[in-house]
Write a structure and sequence with these properties.
130 residues; two-stranded parallel ribbon; 3 helices; 5 strands; 22% helix; 13% strand
Length: 130
Amino acid sequence: MRIVRLMIILMITYAPSSKPIQQCDYGKADIEISFEQGDHGDGRPFDGASLSSTKILAHAFPPLDGRLHVDVDQQYWVVGLVKNSVDMKSIALHELGHILGLAHSSNNESIMFPIMPFGLVKSLNDNDVN
């Protein structure tokens, strides 16, 4: 439940509208955010909680699909810079990039770099914008 609260905080903080968040009909949504665990049926299973550098924290699908799945078993989600933790905002921004059609970047400063080290906060940089 902690991860759900963090995602709600992020949505409230960064949503362009002051309307309250409501459960939506995914059939009409352009983006579907869900919290999944293990093998959840999309061919891209999560590997549970760990501090491994190869940990899959979340994944998203390209435009016209719009699914964003977050590993609910991850125990290290935070908002902000905390040692040995993962910044939910940075991961969400990276995955939303995929939903918009962006591929991974080879620039390790880019939000679209495929590896997010624990204890780091990222945002958009020139590589992401250009």
